[in-house]
Amino acid sequence: MWRSARIGFAALALMSAAAATLAAQETATPVFKAPYRAFTSHEFGGNLSFPSGDVNLAVEGFYGFGHGAYDIGIRGGFEDLEGSGDTRILLGGDFRTRVLKASEQFPFDGALTLGVGLNAGDGPDVLLLPIGLSLGRRFLLEDSKISFVPYVNPVFAPAISGGDSQVDLAFGLGIDIRFSNAVDFRVSGGLGDIEGIALGIAVVR
Known about the structure:
mainly beta
């Protein structure tokens, strides 16, 4: 068990060090996905994020529901731009399904993540189509209901703006912490093209 854990943490460190150019998720905020959904049927909540660049903060609400091995989420909110007082509208949707199960040979569970989103308003409008793989592991504290899921979420992210397109290699890091059967706390971040952190809370059912 400890050998698998050491291998897992070493791989996480190497993946973090190897990240060169990074972006965020479907709305261009540093909100990333763990390989597990925290809910059985549905969840709702919000994210407060602090991207780098000319954005002071972003506020988003989200709703997600599960069906079998996959789940689907929608989100919406706004960004407050630094200095100008202008805002940008954020709209997006995402899909996640488990594709890997941890074993002695590979210490992570994994999920395929897909998204589509729009970041629009002051300046060029951007359509994002991230495709990623979330890798992590759930740990349960003994004799408690507390669990936590550290993960990495590298993302291949085509971005289309004004007829032009580019492809970013995104990389997210995060941890989901569940203190009860009803509430899940989330922290995630990205480094590189879009640096920043995001804080989230979800009510799960």
